[in-house]
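Instructor's aside before we start: the two examples that follow are unrelated to each other. I chose them only because their records fit on one page, so don't look for a connection. First example below.
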Amino acid sequence: MKNYKINFIYSLVFIVFSLFLISCSKPLPKNYSYRITFMEQEQYVEPYPTRIIITQDFLRFDDGENSQDYILFDRSNNVVHSVVTEERTIMSVHPKDTKIKPPIKLDLTEKDLGEMKDAPEINGKKPHHYQLLVNGKVCSDVIVVNNLMPAAVKALTEFTELMASDSKMTLSSTPADMFNDCDLAMDTFASTRVFKFGFPVQTMGRRDYARTLVDYDEKYKLDKKLLELPKDYKQYTVQDLREGKVKFSG
């Protein structure tokens, strides 16, 4: 029995290592340009579209063609810019090197609900359904397609990691009775779990939130002006805002 367990462990290690080599043997594309459109739904809010443009150096969020306000993630410099046209401002968010630990226990587990056999194929594959749990409670359902736009998954993971690092900075000002285990995990301490199994084509979770993939274009003809920042806008950091250093006109 002891030898059987040892052999099983060795076999498992070999399988995991082999999968790792396979994943590494497929390099991410270069000079790619993706356009991804989601439909998002929140409690008390009418459904709205979100367009995401992804390149090797940038990631942009907006609400579609002719958007005036947008979020631009400069991947080369690892900084997020939020552009508000009406106020003519650019607020920047930088990664925070913090060792802050969760203020409450967060036991993270996942439940594999299997392939969605009745769903249509995407990129030649059936979507797969997972549930993300915190402290034994389902916090989010995510439906993914493995190996769909892995470069997009990487870019979205980088963005999510940066925003989660900044989120940690707000914990000290949050009353203890306001902490929610799902929120702490999904927004701050385990925010990238949604990308663990592949590209999320649908996410459903807290407070009736849902995000559903509507369309995507892996050969998007990009207008490079979409990846530029206005040159004459007032610039400040999110930390400046928190410290009351920002004065708005009007």
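Example two begins here.
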Amino acid sequence: MTASVQVVCLGTGDAFGSGGRLQTCFLVRTAAGSALVDCGGTGLIAMRRAGLDPNTVDVVLLSHLHGDHIAGVPFLILDAQFVSKRTAPLVIAGPPDTRARLMQLMEVMFPGSSTIERRFKLHIIEMEPQRRHTFQGFAATPYPVNHPSGSTAFALRIECGGKIIAYSGDTDWTDTLVAVARDADLFVVEAYTYARSVPYHLDYQTLLAHLSDLRPKRLIVTHMGPDMLSRSGSLGCECAEDGKQIDV
């Protein structure tokens, strides 16, 4: 029997909090475990609002190394040490240079925090492009996309509970997204603008033009800027919202 999979939209906003939305963070949970997909600066706040225990997160999958997608990770790690009293291992998996960037970020935010002795094992894994990586209850295959962030940016194809969840991360159009999203049970995809071209971001009209190639079973748009938010009620597609729960 296929296990149930639920996606909780913890943060669905752009980098600038347009519409008052929190920064990018999604929770994927199955009977076998839970994963965060990206963890922007407001990720821990969003988990608290949703009544979610951070200790239930087994792995954090990072699409790229911009602050609105990773700045919540230091808070998650420090909460685990000092508040939640975590004892189970925590895996952070991201692009090349994730370890160095994360340690730098922790030192800038909380000097000395990257080197303290922890009560739990922290495993930082730098994923190789187009290689399937396995974690507790999850597998993820990262695909390079177009979004300069000081390292390779990834879209992710995630396997869990007998389902496929595709996630674009941030990128302009690239044919790589076809391999990521084709026949996925759910495709969470950025549509930052409605029609205006913005470098390294995807607009809604371009997304629509490629839907016949992508062919996801279900699509939900996220990371919407002001002009997309103003149209969200009339787009004719499903839009992510902070706090929304999706059964896959």
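The chain has a mean pLDDT of 96.
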